[in-house]
């Protein structure tokens, strides 16, 4: 099994740098987070100088804490709404519609979608604040809905729309290339046998790009689960209505200074991330084998 | 088959950074030990670099302070040091963020053993920073500081702002007081007197109801909610609470969800409830406080409770936040009345709250002597006169105050408000209690009954300080 003929020692030397990097940037922080999560460490005060061991209290608190459970639920809504229903579906629709349009329109649309993706989240957030502003916002001016505080009255909807705007490009790009890989003959055949759009999608397109759909689904889910940018729009408020998981951790750890609890919550988040990633890797492997 | 494999590896390549980021994200929140700032570097030839941090930035928050530091203080100080034969360079690290964010940044800096040599802190943070070991008593960091000639000019009460557990941690920068500002033009329109001084909460409400009749005017801005941060506690909840005769901390006990707390929350309910004498949404906006400033300056808010900071730095015609060209003609001020005459703490008719910040030395500074000189120079009569010539405030020094307070408003604070004012407890738990109070006001502003909000506050407070430390 030593196809490259390196030998154990040299092979180890080759992977060592990578392992060191993974150790320093992945394993150590995770273990450190594990340690911090069982202390009552705070940003300031006595518990900052001499944190005490509190065992699993932080985790027990988390599971019985309405704020934690509420945040988990909101994250779920946010991921379903903005990643799956939003970015994926919209990304596919754009890719589908752009298939047969002229080069000019296609280039224009793709550029716009890409710009929304490439611009830093802080810039996009600023644009959205201007758009949704209660007193002189663009949206209120267009709709004639004077004095509607979108970010307060429709907070979750607002950050979902914001995240869709911000992240659709990835799905669109991946679906575009996926659609291009479908043998044209199959689509032509479907057309000639009189299949309507939906039938074509169901019987020809989706079976061909199943793998891509899965890839997009998992990656977009993972990213959206970790996204922090909505904080720039709403700060987690009003109240806790847009307190998705990363925002909850930030507020706990840095705004109220409960670093120990924040670490415990971070670890829970890492575990959820790992679970999604494992599913993803598993699925990939199965696809390769099939 | 082949394409699948390749696509898979591309996707995996995309996935790995995502995982690494997730892990680092978790770590950034928690570990203070990864700061890799180089700190102050001494160049060759004995050059000394000092860093000064303050929540002030040119063209933004506290722009007057930032301009003063960059245009006058630093050049003067460097020249002064050059005369002594020391080559000092001072860097100003300004910020323009919410006070809470600034505090977090300072705590993180100090917890890594880095940070500016001289930094400004709010007085109520001194306790928690000291207990965390982030700052140290002045006489430990720089023993010569005790012999500074400025101390005798700073009254004991003001020194308390930078004192914790009997130890002085820095030089206080002055103090302030809280009043009700009102727009005289709107008052005239509503048929209210131009010279107005309410003597009870009911009279404030009556004025608010009269202002409500004017189209497009928010009668009163009483800070509420968590987004306003300490401004909710300091300009909203606490001045009202002392008006009911109670202190948040008295006789070594914290005040629980008592009758007085409910009375304050009742007033919030009256203002933000059905009558809509205030704008409940404004309290929840991320930039609600700044927007309330803007709306007051544009003449669409009738009354607003604030400190003299508002007069000096917000609606000052030279300010960049919410300048009012006609401030001196249009804006009036009145003392905050107790709930009823004589109902305030110590049987007072009128009440206020005061606080104040100051500068501390970073215990890790490599040049405590020069850093102290910078700090002391900032609080020298010469510097204070220069700083406050056009922007008067109550400084820490009596010798300076006697000369610079010419402004009628600031004089009012010094003469009328300071004698009746109250201070927050400089205890480690205070900032958490403060957040619990903000949450209680937010609950009421968004429709919870005052009784439920008081009960919720009581249980939060028990979690912070323990039931045994709460008075009924």
UniProtKB/TrEMBL annotation, chain A:
Keywords: Cell membrane, Membrane, Transmembrane, Transmembrane helix, Transport
Highest taxon listed in the record's lineage: Bacteria
GO BP, one annotated term: transmembrane transport
NADP is among the record's keywords: no
Keyword Transmembrane helix listed: yes
Primary localization class, coarse: membrane
Bilayer-spanning residue ranges: 12-35, 76-97, 109-129, 159-182, 212-233, 262-281
Span of domain ABC transmembrane type-1: 73-280
Subcellular location: Cell membrane
InterPro entries: MetI-like, MetI-like_sf
Family affiliation: Belongs to the binding-protein-dependent transport system permease family.
PANTHER family: BLR7065 PROTEIN (PTHR43005), SPERMIDINE_PUTRESCINE TRANSPORT SYSTEM PERMEASE PROTEIN (PTHR43005:SF1)
The protein's name: Sugar ABC transporter permease
Natural source organism: Phytoactinopolyspora halotolerans
TrEMBL record, chain B:
Name the record gives this protein: Extracellular solute-binding protein
Domain of life: Bacteria
Pfam families the UniProt entry points to: SBP_bac_1 (PF01547)
Region entry Disordered, spans: 26-47
Keyword tags: Signal
Matching PANTHER family: ARABINOSE-BINDING PROTEIN-RELATED (PTHR43649), BLR3389 PROTEIN (PTHR43649:SF14)
Gene3D superfamilies xref list: Periplasmic binding protein-like II (3.40.190.10)
Keyword Iron-sulfur: no
Key word Transmembrane present: no
Signal sequence region: 1-22
Extent of Gly residues compositional bias: 36-46
